């Protein structure tokens, strides 16, 4: 429930779900796959709760979804074929960059969102390339994917945190959905423990998204920055 709720607002639910599975004896790769499956259901529930905030033109939505699918597949493949410890040294720097980009986004890009109906082809291509990189990360590891996506949306000009969370939830569902299909196909999911976690993620994901929309945008942005900073410190400590 906590992981699903955290993902719906800021991301980072995997930092709760992943250690919980390790604590119960699930091997690392299987634990990562199982928490990805469980939290995907929570993210899907968040998308439903945010549906009224999702107002993005199809000419922008389709490229972002397509690149999310391709990146998610690439990331899932990497997880199953490369040692995870090599990536752990990169994650702290990625999280630091994402948190700074999200926090400084309103000051380094125009106030008008570049995701408007008249968005240029150049801005759409740039957003798609950024989203592909984010989705590769999400398919591979997933921890902090929400922060990464929020940073991408901030970098391309979005400022409404509730609208950003709506699009983040949709793109996260797509990325993790592709990874889920991959993990299920290769039979690395621990379904007994996963089923319990799915139930909690559904509840936490829906109600976390529902009630966060009632909070002031500045408070939600502050919470996202706090979570991002905490995750950055955690990963730098772990890498060290």
Overview of the molecule:
With 240 residues, the chain is mainly α. It has one domain (2-239). It is built from eleven helices and no strands. It has helices at 2-9, 14-23, 28-49, 58-81, 85-88, 91-108, 121-140, 145-155, 161-185, 191-212, 217-239. The two termini are 30 Å apart.
Please supply descriptive tags for the structure shown above.
240 residues; 78% helix
Give the helix/strand layout.
Elements: H1 2-9, H2 14-23, H3 28-49, H4 58-81, H5 85-88, H6 91-108, H7 121-140, H8 145-155, H9 161-185, H10 191-212, H11 217-239
Helix pairs in contact: 1-3, 1-10, 2-3, 3-9, 3-10, 4-7, 4-9, 6-8, 6-11, 7-8, 7-9, 8-9
Return the domain count.
1
Total number of helical segments? 11
Taking all Cα atoms into account, the compactness measure Rg is 16 Å
Q: Structural class from helices and strands?
A: mainly alpha
Low-confidence stretches: none
User: Termini distance?
Assistant: 30 Å
Multimerization state: single chain
Strand content: under 5%
Could you describe the largest sheet, including whether it forms a barrel?
Answer: none
The secondary-structure element order is: HHHHHHHHHHH
Helix content: over 70%
In brief:
With 240 residues, the chain is an all-alpha fold.
